[in-house]
């Protein structure tokens, strides 16, 4: 299993949750699996420095345990779009720093699960998009689709955008984020028929999230 970049159809579709479950599923295949959140906004100051909750979840799901600074090179304080959060913090987001951190993670693991921010088109910096990071790291993409009203449109547009950018979409995962969604099964089947990449699984909606317990729902291939 090679490393890959996890993106979503939008913000709030559960990329961190899915990435954490993926890390456990990969370890069940006998792999050393480490997470990475290259850039995260919405962080809290701790005695060790700025820490982001999504990055901490990936750290908890990783084995072996990497240095936090490698897993999350940019932990921005404000819970805003990364470009705005970085400008507010006076931080210049550099591709080289994230690439160097990824190389250190890759040297200690069989696979690195790199989680992006928001949806595929969410920018990282004034002259830096997520596609630039995926290209720099030479990573294919796994798409997280939040099962809710509008997911068919968002998933198809995102898959087209990834293909248009010349990046390989190697799989997608359905995550049930709306327990009240009507016709979930029918929507899921429509997605299966319209996304060319293989489906790696479907995570049911759950209040109590324990990534290790849900790893059997996913089959990374």
Notes on the structure:
Helix content is 37%, strand content 26%. The chain is of the alpha/beta class. The chain has a single domain (4-217), classed as P-loop containing nucleotide triphosphate hydrolases (Rossmann fold), CATH 3.40.50. The strands form four sheets. Strands 2-7-1-10-11-12 form a six-stranded parallel beta sheet, with helices on both faces. The chain has a two-stranded parallel sheet with strand order 3-6. It is globular.
Largest sheet: 6 strands, parallel
Q: Report the C-alpha radius of gyration, rounded.
A: 16 Å
Helical content stands at 25-40%
CATH class: Alpha Beta
CATH-defined superfamily = P-loop containing nucleotide triphosphate hydrolases
The run of helices and strands is: EHEEEEHHEHHEEEHEHEHE
Kindly report the spatial arrangement of strands forming the biggest sheet: 2-7-1-10-11-12
- Please state the structural category: alpha/beta
How many domains? The number is: 1
Using the coordinates shown, work out and report the CATH topology: Rossmann fold
Number of strands: 12
């Amino acid at each position: 299993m090679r490393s890959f970049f996890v993106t979503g159809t939008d913000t709030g579709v559960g990329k961190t949750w899915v990435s954490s479950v993926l890390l456990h599923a990969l370890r069940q295949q006998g792999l050393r699996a480490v997470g990475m959140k290259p850039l995260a906004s919405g962080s809290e100051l701790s005695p060790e420095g700025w820490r982001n909750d999504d990055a901490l979840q990936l750290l908890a799901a990783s084995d072996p345990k990497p240095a936090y600074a490698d897993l999350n090179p940019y932990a921005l304080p404000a819970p805003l779009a990364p470009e705005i959060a970085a400008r507010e913090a006076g931080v210049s987001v550099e591709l080289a720093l994230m690439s160097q951190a990824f190389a250190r993670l890759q040297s200690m693991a069989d696979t690195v699960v790199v989680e992006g921010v928001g949806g595929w088109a969410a920018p990282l910096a004034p002259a830096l998009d997520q596609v630039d990071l995926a290209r720099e790291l030479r990573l294919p993409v796994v798409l997280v689709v939040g099962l809710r009203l509008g997911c068919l449109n968002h998933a198809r547009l995102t898959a087209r955008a990834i293909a248009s950018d010349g990046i390989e979409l190697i799989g997608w995962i359905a995550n049930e984020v709306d327990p009240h969604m009507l016709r979930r099964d029918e929507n899921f089947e429509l997605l299966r028929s319209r996304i060319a990449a293989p489906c790696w699984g479907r995570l049911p909606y759950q209040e109590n999230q324990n990534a290790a317990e849900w790893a059997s729902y996913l089959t990374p291939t």
